[in-house]
Design brief:
2 domains; single chain; binds magnesium ion; alpha+beta; eight-stranded mixed β-sheet; five-stranded mixed β-sheet; Fructose-1,6-Bisphosphatase, Chain A, domain 1; D-Maltodextrin-Binding Protein, domain 2; binds 2,5-anhydro-1,6-di-O-phosphono-D-mannitol; 13 strands
Length: 335
């Protein structure tokens, strides 16, 4: 049973039995993500000191080369997972190809692969706006003890065994699901401990917030344009409020708490939208569905799409169930 103020470590142990295959491996994996999140959080919090310690690409006063934060985040998550030898493969938005982890053990029997966007929305760092890490975990489909193959990574989102995000915001939070609801933990930075602050998170069925980059409006399909006009019309609970941070994790996190819809549709500029199916859409869709919301590409549930490439992009509409259904209705009618 989730208890408020429980630490994430306690929660992981107490809920281990819920995992489909309770070998403890998935618990150790989530524990490693928790650790990497704290390291990245520390780095992100120092971002405002660039004038003092040196910006990315420069050399700091200690003579060290400064790295971009998304590179640091990528290396932190990869090395944390690699060093613990708890996964057999990693796919990252920052790497062209997946990484095979053979481990030091003669025979790596690890069963999980991780896909991640180590620092999403990183262009927001320079202006002190929240960014996030997104992760997605699958059981491999090829036999343990053999090197992972593309097949292990190109699984439909429905196969995810866990997914989550870390939001580096006014507070740092880790929000995740193992298919038994969604729980949010807030970091107490003074002692480096995550506490359960948002048990059993739920998307309100309806909402009054729409989040979309309206700068692309003229390039959107007609159905999306009509839906945006619908959001702006005067009616019972409309016009809706427009809120767009441009940082996926933050926009979805807010909408999950307050009720709302996020859209990154295809456009005449981007034939498949911008967001990546494996690193961004699938994990956010799994969390959203587990919280009672809905996620689709406008026509098909995101979790039912069959991936064809590691870095594949798809249109993404995600949020409160009734709002997403309304947007889908406009798209079904007008395309
Ligand atoms: P990134 O992976 O390069 O950071 O891009 C993903 C981000 C999302 O966080 C955000 O929702 C979207 O891009 C914003 O894109 P745009 O600036 O086109 O509105
Ligand atoms: Mg991204």
């Amino acid at each position: 049973m989730a208890r408020k103020n429980q630490t994430l470590g306690e929660f992981i142990i107490e809920n281990q039995a819920e995992f489909k295959y309770s070998s403890g491996e998935l618990s150790r994996l989530i524990n490693s993500i928790r650790l990497a999140a704290k390291v990245v959080n520390h780095q992100v919090n120092k971002a405002g000191l660039v004038d003092i310690v040196g910006a990315a690409g420069e050399t700091n006063i200690q003579g060290e080369d400064q790295q971009k934060l998304d590179v640091i985040a990528n290396e932190t998550f990869i090395s944390t997972l690699k060093n613990r030898e708890i996964v057999c493969g990693i796919g990252s938005e920052e790497n062209d190809d997946f990484i095979t982890i053979e481990g030091h053990k003669e025979d790596n029997q690890n069963k999980y692969v991780v896909l991640m966007d180590p620092l999403d929305g990183s262009s927001n760092i320079d202006v002190n706006v929240s960014v996030g890490t997104i992760f997605s975990i699958y059981r491999r489909v090829t036999p343990p003890g053999t090197p992972v193959t593309m097949e292990d990574f190109l699984q439909p989102g429905r196969n995810q065994v866990a997914a989550g995000y870390i939001i580096y915001g006014t507070s740092t939070m880790l929000v995740y699901t193992t298919g038994h609801g969604v729980n949010g933990f807030t970091l107490n930075p003074a002692i480096g401990t995550f506490y359960l602050s948002h048990p059993n998170m739920q998307f309100p069925k309806d909402g009054t917030i729409y989040s979309v980059n309206e700068g692309n409006y003229t390039h959107f399909p007609l159905g999306v344009k009509k839906y945006i006009k619908y959001c702006q019309e005067e009616s019972e609970n409309r016009p809706y409020t427009s809120r767009y941070i441009g940082s996926l994790v933050s926009d979805i996190h807010r909408n999950m708490i307050k009720g709302g819809i996020y859209l990154y549709p295809k456009s005449s500029l981007n034939a498949n939208g911008k967001l990546r199916l494996l690193y961004e859409c699938n994990p956010m869709a799994f969390i959203t569905e587990q919280a009672g919301g809905k996620a689709s590409d406008g026509y098909t549930s995101i979790l039912d799409l069959k991936p064809t490439a590691l870095h594949q992009r798809v249109p993404f509409i995600c949020g409160s169930q009734h709002m997403v259904e309304k947007a889908e209705a406009f798209m079904a009618e007008f395309g």
